[in-house]
Amino acid sequence: MAERKATIPSLVIEAWRAAPRVLRRLAIWMWAIGFPVGALLIVADLRGWWDGYQFIPNIAAEVLSGMLTLPIALVIIGQLAEYQVKALERERLHSRFVSTRRQLVTAARITREQIEGVTRDVEASTNEFVRAAKIDDGQLVDPIAANAAAHTLHTQMDGRQWLMYERIMTPLRILGSHLQTLLLERDRDGDLTEETTRFARLWLDLESALAAQHQIMTIGQNLFGQQPALYPRSVAKADRLRDVAVEHVRTIDRLTELCRELEDQAGGEQPALTR
Hints:
Layout: H1 8-18, H2 21-46, H3 55-132, E1 135-136, E2 139-140, H4 143-156, H5 159-186, H6 194-224, H7 235-266
Antiparallel strand pairs: 1-2
Helix pairs in contact: 2-3, 3-4, 3-5, 3-7, 4-6, 5-6, 6-7
């Protein structure tokens, strides 16, 4: 749809429509009195009814001028006040936006570092399990080491570990949701900016990765919780456990990657405040 061109008459009409109803009623009332009185004054002046009392038409003209222009002045003052309020709102929104972005950068970095600390232990356990659960001549290479590593992986995937991930992610999720709200509020009077849509996609990816992490940890908790997890000839189950262990590491790496992307995006160049 073609954008409507703004003109002075259209702005005046828009201001009149946006004016309070009581102001429009006052204007109509004053104009209904003012125009007939003005016409009467002109007729009286043309016929010389004032004689030597020129101060009377002068006073009447001042009163009439005020009656005709006061409603317009009130409409203009109302519009200026509205523009000023909107400008203050934009400044406050921009200040909150900048502050939230800075906090999000810090939260994303801290979250990434904490997850990376967990990743090192999980990778070590996974590598040990993959090594011990290799199949040679139809049986496991090292069943004892494989079960020991499986026990460690079960500990790293239990419900308490998931609560730890939720605790680590909570500050980031709170700030991210707040920033997304601010972005939508900033773009509410127009089309969504590229920054808003890019952040929305990134945030959706993060929530999806966190859900995938929860799902794989639940699966792993059930599979690795059986004691013993593997027998010397549990070839099919060894393959299944190996796939789950590797996927567990991948989901953690994905969370780390998305935290880094959030950190980069939130710490990027900030748009200037538009007035």
